[in-house]
What we know:
The complex is a heterodimer.
Chain A: H1 5-20, H2 26-34, H3 38-52, H4 63-72, E1 82-83, E2 86-95, E3 98-105, E4 110-116, H5 119-122, H6 125-139, E5 149-155, E6 158-164, E7 169-170, H7 171-177, H8 182-201, E8 214-216, E9 222-224, H9 230-233, H10 246-252, H11 258-261, H12 266-269, H13 277-292, H14 302-311, H15 326-335, H16 347-372, H17 415-431, H18 433-439, E10 450-455, E11 462-467, E12 473-480, E13 483-490, E14 497-503, E15 506-512, E16 518-524, E17 531-536, E18 543-547, E19 554-555, E20 561-567, E21 574-581, E22 588-594, E23 597-598, E24 608-609, E25 615-622, E26 628-633, E27 639-641, E28 650-656, E29 662-668, E30 674-680, E31 686-688, E32 695-701, E33 707-722, E34 731-732, E35 748-750, E36 755-760, E37 767-772, E38 779-780, E39 788-793, E40 799-804, E41 811-816, E42 823-824, E43 831-836, E44 842-849, E45 852-859, E46 862-869, E47 874-878, E48 884-890, E49 899-906, E50 914-917, E51 928-930, E52 936-943, E53 946-953, E54 960-961, E55 969-975, E56 982-999
Antiparallel strand pairs in A: 1-2, 2-3, 3-4, 4-6, 5-6, 7-8, 8-9, 10-56, 11-12, 12-13, 13-14, 15-16, 16-17, 17-18, 19-20, 20-21, 21-22, 23-25, 24-25, 25-26, 26-27, 28-29, 29-30, 30-31, 32-33, 33-34, 33-56, 35-36, 36-37, 37-38, 39-40, 40-41, 41-42, 43-44, 44-45, 45-46, 47-48, 48-49, 49-50, 51-52, ...
Chain B: H1 4-15, H2 19-43, H3 54-63, H4 71-99, H5 111-115, H6 125-138, H7 140-151, H8 156-163, H9 167-185
Amino acid sequence: MTITPEHWQEIKRVFNAALDQKPEARPIFLDEACAGNSELRSEVDSLLSSYERTGEFIDAPAYEVAAGLILEKESVLTPTGNLGSYRILSTLGRGGMGEVLLAEDSRLGRKVALKLLPSSFTNDPDRLARFEREARAASALNHPNILTIYEVGSFDGRQFIASEYVEGETLRQRQLHSPLKLSEVLDVAVQVVSALAAAHQAHIVHRDIKPENIMLRPDAYAKVVDFGLAKLTAKPTPSSDTSLPTMRQVDTDTGVVMGTTAYMSPEQARGLTLDARTDIWSFGVVLYEMVSGVTPFKGATPSDLIVSILDREPAPLPATGSVIPPELDWIIRKALRKDREERYQTARELLGDLRSLKRQIDFAAQNERTLISEDAAPLSVSPSISTDQPRALSTAEVGRTKTITHAQSVAVASRKRTVAIAAALAALLVGAIFIGYKLWPGKKSATFQSMKITRLTNSGKVIDSIISPDGKYLVYVLSDAGKQSLWIRQVSIANDKLIVPAAQMGVFGITFTRDGNDVYYVIKVNMDKGTLYRVPALGGTPVKILEGVDAPVSSSPDGKQLAFLRGSFPNQGESALMIANSDGSGERILATRKSPKAFVPIFFTGPAWSPDGKLIATSVGSFDASFRIFTFAVTDGKETDLTPNAPWRFTARVEWLPDMSGLLAIAGEGPGVCQVWLLSYPGGSMQRITNDLAAYRALSIANDGTKFSTIQSSGLVNIWIAAEGDTDHALQLPTGNVGFFGSSGNTVSWTPKDGLVFISNESTNLDIWSMDANGENRKQLTSNAGYNFSPQVSPDGRYIVFVSNRGGNRNVWRMDINGNNPRQLTNGTAEATPTITPDNNWVIYSSLVGGRFTLWKVGIDGGNPVELTNRVATSPTLSPDGKYVAYMFPASLDPLAPPNRIAIMPIAGGEPAKVIEIPSTSTVAPSAHWSADGKSIMYTVNINNVTNIWSQPLDGGAPKQVSEFKDSLMTGFAWSNDGKKLACTRGVLMRDAVLISEEE
Amino acid sequence: MQPPEGITQLLVRWNGGDKTALDQLMPLVQSELRRLAGNYLRRERPGHTLQPTALVNEAYLRLVDQKKANWQNRAQFYGIAAQLMRRILVDHARQHNAAKRGGSDQQRLSITSAHDVSDKPNLDLLALHEALEELAAIDPQQGRIVELKFFGGLSIEETAEVMHLGHATIERDWKMARAWLRLKLE
Lengths: 1000, 186
């Protein structure tokens, strides 16, 4: 119940007037005074009835008791003078953990908050030891939203913690004097959860998240205080009799009073062992309260409250002045799931959702402002400063579809970056002022401090998009249930309109005509030659222009000609960059490439006609070296390599900036991990514009040069375990989203002791982690800036071999099972999918040589690699007896064709003894594993975007489906060594159109 | 211990708007109150009712130079004392609960269990403290009255004097605040 001061005054007026009446006259008086206001009437009634029964309630002064209390404990702090090197200045407050003083550290001359622990505390050596351990662990936390602990110590037998002194008020105090606006709620929420995520990563659980433990500085910084300390005041072991009603435990528990009970998680109330998810619950309560002003669970007494926490659903968010977005309601509910398995599993997950929502709201607010002043600055891009990581609402259960009712836009604000820069600068200043000064890019352009990423679609199924020349419309390709369709909408309003209805086709490129009236699109059916059509942008009858177009076309500036790519032309194994008139007539070859080089049309590449009409830029693929970006002169085909020193292995779509000062390019380590780069022209310097875990493809820039659209894709992938292979009862492990990496190789691997090694992008890089099969003891094994993936545990459990690009190329590495002693085993151009022979002596892997992946082996300790077969071969898997190796290869000679054959050959190499054909698996990395009994090969098959594992008996029987998953794509799987437990990574690939624009 | 003049000076400074004066005042008043409370209890039998305001009065007389102080200083001093009493009580109630943690038959600290005055209704100090915070947020005047009367031990008259308000106002606010707090603690 929250009462506004105004309402209180009204109650007071009526209450006082009623008291002046004789008791028997009061009902009639109240009827009149309340005049039908039944709420007021019932409030005054209950006050009056309480008044009648007041009795001696708080009549006698309390302080006569105080004397007794004081004598109970002799230890009285003298909060004056000095405590070690701290000079006490004043008292800041008191809490369950003792007194907090403001003091000055005379050594450093800075103000600190000094928390003195109650002496009762110091008398118990166990607790003391625990306190020191926890406090020191907490003091290692280094996060802008966590109160920094400077020192944990004791002086004269008094334990103290010296921490950063924060001026400001607690969230509780703030809520009492003025409610928070929605934007403020999200601002605080993101900061607090970001603090939780950092602490949880360091395995520190707060356990007592509540408004009193969140400090708000006047500059809107939130600081979470008392990390890891709540545990110390809590009961050391849960009650042995957990079947008892919880109220007694709670009542007897320390410091657990009404105020704190409200934030207690169900598992806390039950006295169960706590993990990080208790903080998520408590924060859910705090969030609910920030939004509504009241706590979600009610009870007149602590025990009633506990019953409510354990059994009742949170009361619906009360209607307040501002509209509560449904997403926020959803987020709160997910944080407040009674069963912690159903809750947000990690603070990071919760953070992702909060950030997304915050961006939406920031975006909406900015939109309103933008409508007023439309003139944005030109895109004089100096984008070396990375952006925040844009993400989809990342925590929906797999397969869950969000209903989209209005524009779902996501903007990346720049404030965080400023904060990060400030923090970095501060660190530099403290560390080494001179170096800091040099490193600080003080002369960077102030006009392009940041950019904004606005999500334009939210279905997760948008695979391609273009923006109209005036920047007002977005045309996109929706891919759903095996069909694709073409849509248009305004950038600012989600008024989607169908242009080309859904059909079983692949759209291989869309382009606006220069005047923005029409759209060119290329469709392919069954991977054959693409056909170019032209259709009015707002819908109409498509007109067929030309056959043999395999990628998006680019119009000449005058609109009279088109540049396009054609695969397998003029001969098999060749590809061509071509020009034709815009009606399809008069086609001619401008340049050709022969395998292993190619104008790879299938990777969303495509030509870009320069604004001055003289050049056509495009990516040139190479399967034995890096991809490059070239320009070709329109008149004579004269070519120029723009990227002789590019750091990328892969490039795809390119687009010119309208003033020709540069090109935007999709580039990166591989197709699944591309970012947007800016390549200056003609200088050729390269700067990354996006910097996150998503992959980008498609590029389309508006004529004013201030914004472009692209497709952002990210995986929403979780690890599942099926005991006895029973996929109907598969359990999702609490790792949260491990991400999807667009490259083949193991995503999971079992240790002989039934532990799991897996890859995850949780660290923001791609890293190898390990954990128990129940998800406990999660540990990050690699932590360098590179990509580490495709892990395989050796049969003896000693080593993990994996692929890492930390040395520049993708090579095979080996490390101890605990992540120690990393060692590079190979040093080729690009290597993939290592596995280990049953005798633990050899690593078998595929290596890119002469434009093809072939199979090699190298000793477990390194040495000279030996080629096993010169046929195209990836993803080797070994028979349990070690006598055979099975590998995957493509049916077609096209180096980009998916591998849909499995060959079995003797370990010594040579001709395949057997070849198995498997269904062609499309977007998701295919994988195959030999069964534990040696009798069959298991591989993944996608049907209607659902992946299942199939088994092909080696004795020639019919293949049969092994797993029974009903949804989601599978990105990798592994059977435990006894063949009983299945681990797999499953999820969805989210692809959406985003608008990237310069932020003023 | 600082000489009494120091306290008076601080009160005067605080009255003049110097916020840091309060920070320095608090610990001084607190330690004096603690000392006096201890003395009282040692010489009085448990259950013996102390004179209302006795502690605070004595502290005030001891600490403040009457020649230099005015009524405002007195009001401030009583206000500080009441606040401190409240803190002492609440803090000790928390520590008490913490110390008794794990016992099977312990209750939250209440006035009765702490002082064994059986004819008073059981009162949960911490709950009262929290309810009072809530009250002070919606009606600061009532919050202050309860603090002065209950924690500071002042009478209606003294409260009226200290707050510079009329008897009737204090009386009425006190009634309503009690009724509301009682409701909250039910």
